[in-house]
Write a structure and sequence with these properties.
- The protein has 512 residues and is an alpha/beta fold.
- The chain folds into three domains: 86 residues, no CATH class; 136 residues, no CATH class; 174 residues, Alpha-Beta Complex (Adenine-n6-DNA-methyltransferase TaqI, Chain A, domain 2).
- 32% of the residues lie in helices and 19% in strands.
- It contains 19 helices and 20 strands.
- The strands form four sheets. Strands 3-2-1-4-5-7-6-8-9 form a nine-stranded mixed beta sheet, with helices on both faces.
- Helix 1 packs antiparallel against helix 4 and helix 1 runs antiparallel to helix 5.
- The model has no long low-confidence stretch (mean pLDDT 90).
Length: 512
Amino acid sequence: MSDTLDRENRRLEIQHRIDSQKNHAERNRLGQFATPPALAEEILKYAHSILPPNARVRFLDPAIGTGSFYSALLKVFPSSRIDEAVGYEIDSQYAAAATEVFAETSLKVKCGDFTMANAPTSDREKFNLIICNPPYSRHHHLGKEEKVRLRERVENSIGVTLSGLSGVYCHFLCLSHAWLPPDGIAGWLIPSEFMDVNYGWALKRYLLHCVTLLRIHRFDPSNVQFDDAYVSSAIVWCRNAPPPSEAQVEFSYGGRHTSPTIVRRIPLRELEATQKWTRYPETQENHVNIARYRLSDFFDVKRGLATGCNDFFVMTAKRGKERGLPREFLRPVLPPPRNLHVERIEADENGNPVLDEDLMLLDCHLSEQTVRTEYPSLWDYIQEGAEAGIQRRYLCAHRSPWYSQENRPPSPFLCSYMGRQVAKRKNPFRFVLNFSNASATNVWLMLYPKQGIAARLRNDRVLHESIWQGLNRIPNGDLLGHGRVYGGGLYKLEPKELGNGPADDIAELFGW
């Protein structure tokens, strides 16, 4: 035991040294976030509990890093049960560290990209225990050719077509299937977002049909498992065997992996019909009521304006005046939720919002030649933005002219796009009533009443108030259940997700 402890201490020292040599941006791009030792040990203890008693272990970690899971394997399983242990690691520094630390053990470290490796053809050479914390690299860190290669490799391996938006961890999980013998066990520490997002559906199909999904444990989003990665994590367990016809999956939430706060068993057929799996196990926080009407029956929900650079395009009215920018190219815009301290936005005689600070959005559709000739002060400001490279940013580069904005007229109702639960506000999302002519940036979701509803609302302030109150009566769990959550307890709602919110209270206002 002392040798194991000394080895683990040395591994952690080397891990810290290597990590300190890499900046956060680099590690984020590569998705390198080491598994905490206590969590690694919990995961291996659970693996021990679901493997057949006294089964010989052939262990594989496709992204071994410095060997957190292998170190835990040595603590949990006697060496006499470990027939073989192999780890792949694409980063030569981590691979060298694992090789050095575990030189006196049977671990074989292969420095290379697991997604390029070929699986053994014989079941006897495959691995009945795969445990991995795969790279958390997001799709935008992958080049087009790499995306095509990974997608084709997964398709050829198991017949599953992953979305181009899939993170690298999805490819790791699917490609590992060929390395599992019949009844082999796999445990994956991955972001829980796959349970809710559209790109995760292909991965969920794999878990539902290609293997027997045993358990998914989802950590409380406020309890981030990685100090340097703000992701909400889940541990997914499966067995390489066809799922039984009446299979049930254990969903657990909160607490520790070995002692969760809530545990429920969900029939597989129910999972097949459910788009968002983070509602399981159902809690008071994520309970979704069945409603006859949805918000999308009454509203077109859109994200606010994506300017490409708020620091340049959004300014106070005072700043715009000081720069001599023509008022005709400045339109009112609402502040972000953290700076908006009212729930109801009134308007002055000109329709402008009555707020502590007047914010304006620069929006000009005139050609550069016209601006240069007729509006010299605006031209000077635009040139400053060009010199700062703003016109080369993605959104700006795809607009003509680059200093124009997309069409987002004011909306009478808004909802914050993201938020956290705090003591004063259990619901992370805010609904705001807007009587002004101010638009909003993309930190807001804008609810535009459909044609018939808009006609009823015209000049009817009381009906505006009643709808707003109905929006605020939507139960907390209905919004959380339709949205998604990230590490640190950050909740987000996309337009379609908000549109799925219940609207029976609003339907009553119109006699539906």
